[in-house]
Amino acid sequence: MSDRITLALRSPLERALDADAISPDRFATLGSREISALPLWDGRNSVELGEVFTVKGERSQTVVLEGDLAKLNGVGTMMSGGTLEISGSIGNAVGARMRGGTIRVQGSAGDDAGSAMSGGSLIIAGDARDRVGGALQGASKGVTGGDIIVRGSAGRECGARMRRGILYCSSVGAGAGLGMIAGNVIVSGAIGDGAGIGNKRGTIVALGGIAVPPTYAYACTYRPPHLSLMLLYLRSRYALSMDDAQLHGLYKRYSGDLAEIGKGEILEWQATS
Amino acid sequence: MEIRGVQIDDTFAEAFGMRGVRIIITAKNQKWARESANKLTGFATSVIACKCEAAIERELAPSETPDGRPGISVLLFTMDSDSLPKRVIERIGQTVLTCPTTACFDGLPDLPDRIAIGKPLRTFGDGYQASKMIGGQRYWRVPVMEGEFLIQETFGKAKGVGGGNFLILAESADAALDAAGAAVDAMAGTPGVILPFPGGIVRSGSKVGAKKYKGMIASTNDAFAPTLRAIAPTSLPAGVNSVLEIVLDGLDFRSIAKAMQTGIDAACREGVRSITAGNYGGKLGPYHFHLRKIMSGDLDDAPKADAPKPAAPK
Q1: DSSP class per residue in A66-114
Q2: Are B170 and B176 spatial neighbours (Cβ–Cβ below 8 Å)?
């Protein structure tokens, strides 16, 4: 048993590979030979993990991935525990359907990061492309639990069809929180058009301003008590920079989407509060 | 044993198993947290008639509370598990939900035994309430005229200890009150302990039942009543003209023992003849706080059992 398992990329990837076999909880009982024999998929063809990565360590729930992994997709799929450290950028669907544990991406992530996640923490130091914290194609609901932190910017339709959980981004593209059932999308900076369209009970927190869709109606300006709790939780757990004025300040509350059941909300921070 | 000329009797305080919660009330400022806590803990001196015992444990700085606002920690105890949720729900519903700017949180989040508190209270929202999951805990947002009331869905249920006590036997009523006040001040803020009586002090210590009136649960402790010295069997030494009692409830034996040690030491001052304690011969309560052991630094007297026993009067 090792304190960690390190997978170092042997040579730059020329084609995308599906790597849903890479998950700390699955590695916990495997020796290095067994880990090396796990399949990675190039379309219908498989390649052994050991041909792509050098494997150091065995039987550990802490896994470190090294190299330019922007073409490596599906890492941490359905992960239920342990820690996955990714030293650079990663491809699509990192942490998809993740149920527990922690994934830290030091670089950026591709599309569909944390889609349909139900627990654990996915922390992306750089940017994330489209549909971070979104739903699988055709699914009625997306994320049902856990925390997703994108310290950089996120693309389109992040948090779509979210049912529960917290998604924090520095900025987001168009369609954030599309069709949210519940849950929380918190954005510290710019928010693209069409945020919260089709929102049923979800919360979109705009710390940096927002163009409120016409299907939302202003309710009041107040201090949402749950928000100080949530922002304090994010600040203390993920060392996010939030000042006390954001924790305890005034927010405009807009109810919507009124084209839906209207129990969702957009909370827009009032910087002068 | 003597401390600064005050006799410490070779006896013990007999205490009982209780069930309790720690309620964290936060508010815009300490004033409103305390307003709410004062109401919540009102009329909660003894289970004999109040159905629960509650008091403020201590003030909390913003850095100690879940939402980063000033707060107050309250402990509330009942004699059994079944009545605990009812007492907590009715008191929070009437005194925290109603108080401007407050929010209410569980102060024992690590306890696996949970009781639903915010869950039933959410229905005050008449269907407009909403829940939030934050850090694995569910909270309820209840819309109110002021804005929103936030409360945690479940609270941890602790096995506590109720009825720790000591009696201060003094030469005068003033000396007894001064000593009791000094003891309360010294014990203030002890984690895990409350003093549920007014100002932490009881003047009407009681005995089980009554000699004259059938059906009384408790009546005056005539053996310690100085005005009855000449007409009833007395336990008062010569020169004692007034007795006050300190009653303590707590989350565990050691916390109470530590507080008793602090309080008794502070009470040993001029005008006090002796310190004793109330018990029922050791037959009713499983927790025995031996005064001399506590004052010798032995705070770990293990309970004989931790199951709650029937209510005993104070």
Answers
A1: ES-BTTEE-TTTT--SSEEEESS-B-TTTTTT--SSEEEESS-B-TTTT
A2: yes
Do the Cβ atoms of A248 and B134 come within 8 Å? no
For helices B83-95 and B30-40, angle between their N-to-C axes, nearest 10 degrees = 140
> Which residue segment(s) compose the domain that A178 sits in?
108-269
A201 vs B130, B134, B139: nearest CB = B130
Chunked mean pLDDT (size 10), chain A, 273 residues: 92 95 95 96 95 96 96 97 97 97 98 97 98 94 97 97 97 97 97 97 97 97 96 96 92 96 97 72
Instruction: Specify if A9 maps to a domain.
Output: no
Is A265 among the domain residues?
Answer: yes
Interface of A with B (CB under 8 A): 145, 164-166, 184, 201, 203, 220, 222-226, 228-230, 232-233, 237, 244, 247-248, 263
C-beta of residue A119 within 8 angstroms of C-beta of residue A137: no
**Minimal Cα distance from B65: which residue of A?**
A229
Interatomic CA distance for residues A236 and A104, integer angstroms: 17
Interface residue B132 vs chain A (CB under 8 A): yes
pTM of the model: 0.92
**Number of H-type helices and E-type strands within chain B:** 7, 19
Which chain B residue lies closest to A203 (C-alpha atoms)? B132
Position A138 in a domain: yes
Measured in angstroms, the CA of B169 and the nearest CA of chain A are apart by 49
A248 located within any domain: yes
Q: Which of residues 285-314 of B touch A (CB under 8 A)?
A: none
Contacts of B151 in chain A (CB under 8 A): none
| Reduced 3-state DSSP string for B82-115 | CHHHHHHHHHHHHHCCCCCCCEEEECCCCCCCEE
Q: What domains can you pick out in chain B, each with its CATH number?
A: 2-15+161-295 (3.30.70.520), 18-158 (3.30.70.520)
Task: List the single residue in B with minimal CA-CA distance to A221.
Answer: B147
ipTM computed for the complex: 0.92
Question: Could you give the CA distance from residue A57 to residue A161 in angstroms, rounded to a whole number?
Answer: 39
Count of the separate structural domains present in chain A: 1
